[in-house]
# Entry
Amino acid sequence: MQRRDFLKTTLTAAALSSLLPKHLRAAGANEKVNLACCGIGNRGAAVIKELYATGLVNIAALCDTDMGAPHTLEILKLFPNVPRFQEFQKMFDQLGNSIDAVSIGTPDFSHFPIAMLAMSLGKHVYCEKPMGQSFRQIELMMQAEKKYRVAAQMGNQGHSEANYFQFQAWTEAGVIKNVTKITAFMNSPRRWHGMTVDGFLPAEPIPASLDWSEWLASAPAHEYNHKYMNGDWRSWYEFGNGALGDWGAHIFDTAHEFLDLGLPSEVAAVKLDGWSPYIFPQASTLAFRFPARGAKPPVELTWYDGQKNFPPLPENMGVAVVDPNIPPPSSGSIDTKMRPPGKVIYAEGRTFKGGSHGSTLQVVGEDPNTPKLPEYPKSPSNHFKNFILACKGEEKCRSSFSVAGPLCQTMVLGVLAQRYNATLAFDRKTKRITNHKEADAMLAGAAPRPEWEQYYRL
# Structure
């Protein structure tokens, strides 16, 4: 079936799916969730193994644009008898009636079409961060979650660990209050560090195992080059969201949610070393300015990335907070000794330091005689089990698209400030950039290739 004809059929099925009561579209209490997996190598493989480890899923389908490549072999060997596809459209066409949920562990730019098609068919979605690549994509994904009444979870797993419950409890108890300043930093090596380009990469022969057009998904047309693959796409504005999109959702995510930051009114490119119109800077300092929210004061969140772009820290900062469960990168390394990823939160009466993912906050310079701070509950389920239980109607997604969407849109605005080396004024009501026409137009993202336009109408 041609993609265009397939989508016409899909739209009809989606309309019917949205009318079904939730209990008819979710697995029963004693049933396993039939999971289709899109992206089965690298991070996608780790996601599949975590979801399978819950003991609550059947792996119903495996889909990857480079099926049989070295990075996919582990999952193929683990599930040798599961149907395999290179096109997610064909997967849904052939197995749609037997799929309850979908995991998406593909590159940033291809999250959107897979998630939109899945949700339009009434399938629950676990999507790696960031949700989408453009502001518009994320907006549509939030709308689809609500329209199709599905469980949709973004994969920032710290949202189901101790930091999530601590931050919530401490803000509700007034321990964290009247925050005015946040410093967030990620100073580990990234793929584009030391890289210089004056354009896109030259064409190379496409490997026989790869469906290059399907890999590009709704991204603009480009010639194949192996340096776009297996995580190297993250270096390029066309494909990725840089260090900010990769790590922001692990570092300042709980502050964003529980301080009700929403969208910023301004994002300033304070410092960009080695700026390029093609790849991310060698180092970036970005200032996100959030207005007052009710009784909460304005907040300035400053982001630092780059191997030597160290942030100013309190003199009595002490030992850094390190989450021991940070997953290893597929390339490069995470510096957990010199300057591990983390944050400092400046609140009324106290300054807090924290790491990334699920690591808990500590009070900077805390007096040992200070009364004990409020207890917080233990997580009833990790992030993967939380999603599967949400599919079954037993829990709610802690990082639902409605929660994760504004966080990801905030990071997109930061990426646009990097891309255009500018200070961007943003109208929170109209959701438009008011002082930079080119950046405002890019809120919609690059124009998709014609055969991918229909995903924006699902």
The chain has two domains: 3-158+393-400, 161-377+409-444. The CA atoms of residues 13 and 289 lie 43 Å apart. The radius of gyration is 21 Å.
